[in-house]
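Chapter summary example: a protein plus iron/sulfur cluster.
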Amino acid sequence: MVEKTEQKQKLGMNRRNFLKAGMAATAMGVIGAIKAPAKLANAAVPSSVNYLAPAKGQWSKLHPEHNYGGASVTFAENNDQWLGTSKLVGTVKNTNEADMGFNLARRGLISDRAHRGVYNFVPKHPQGGAISATLGFVGTEDAVDGKPAPEKLPIPDPEQMSQHIRDLAYFLRADEVGIGKMPSYAYYSHKVYPTKDLAYQPVEECVYPVTQRYPYVIVVMVDQHLETMLGSTGYDGVSASQSMRSYHATGNIAVIIAKYIRSLGYNARAHHARNYMAVMPPLILAAGLGELTRTGDCAAHPRLGFRLKVAAVTTDLPLLPNKPIDFGMLDFCRVCGKCADECPSKAITPDKDPIEYNGYLRWNSDMKKCTEFRVSNEEGSSCGRCMKVCPWNSKEDSWFHEAGLWIGSRGEANAKLLKSIDDMFGYGTEQIEKYKWWLEWPELYKIPASIPPAPAPKASPAH
Ligand code: SF4
Ligand code: SF4
């Protein structure tokens, strides 16, 4: 193990020397064989490559060009046959929140280990617990939803209003933002009352049907932090903190945007990790922020990979939605499989192609295995190993990486080449010591011997 780590560190060092010494031009010879754009070939740091600009006014004043990090991006569809590059092959059924991974663990339907582990898997690292607890402050029904102001204020046309909402999200420190047509199947069929606990009460008493439907969704995205990811194994003590960092930031941004829209006289409901009424991956696709990946339902962004978390606002504010995007992720996942090789629970399928699942095509990865590992990992808190090793992230911010993304987004043959280069340089599987800034408390990482006793019952709010 030590030998393997040393080898990886050596590979990482070689890569950085390689980049610093300007020898990357040699690699560009290889890359050049796939016709690198002139902007990349001269080794400058390009802001975007092969970028298809959105229609005038479709993006933002603060970020006039959306940063896809060099990937070659085209637009896709959101209709009854496609959601971006995901093929709809039947009726997509709305999901019951009680059947989501962590809730299955709370209900004892995954394993005894998962049942015991789910109670403390985030707060067992005090830093992740602190961030998570403060997100709870904006998780109440009053924070995420409410009545709109009785009078509608005069607002700009949908195109300008969309630009304004994106600018507001960037102002509030979102890393990315998109607007989509809200897929009705992304709403939960039933939501779990925030005041009920699936561990101690029958599921029928814990859920209520979701009837709210708004036509648009605003999705805000925050990076889980590149340097931290480079220093981490992907499943050590900081893993839950990385998730919570982005959940906290996106959750607060979504709550503010929803409140703002309601004060303009329109309906708006925030969805974040402490109070969802919808599943997030289809929203990421609908808002033009990503494609599904081999991991099953995790969506990746062309620049961030899936080193991200999102929150959303569903609304009837008149907006002009973005189109979903296609940057070649599905072709890449077909030939890559690095996350499947590196997943500590073997939850990610090595199959080449997606299969039908609930009316759409996705890879047959196993949510229950993933959930069990994340809630009962005794080497840290949670897990994001797949996110770390994915060739679409875990990179220095360099022209070389941007060139790689451009290559990777151009078909299966090029994806094979990029994956080989990624492996050759040890990308994704190394831990860079200079970035390991957090403290570890391995004595806190054990899962409890039993589930805690039921807390005193709380009154449920009316819905
Ligand atoms: S989060 Fe960890 S356990 Fe889950 S799929 Fe990713 S690598 Fe596997
Ligand atoms: S590691 Fe490879 S297979 Fe897995 S999500 Fe990333 S690109 Fe796809």
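Key point: Residues 295, 343-345, 347-348, 370, 373-374, 383-386 surround iron/sulfur cluster (ligand 1) (CB under 6 Å).
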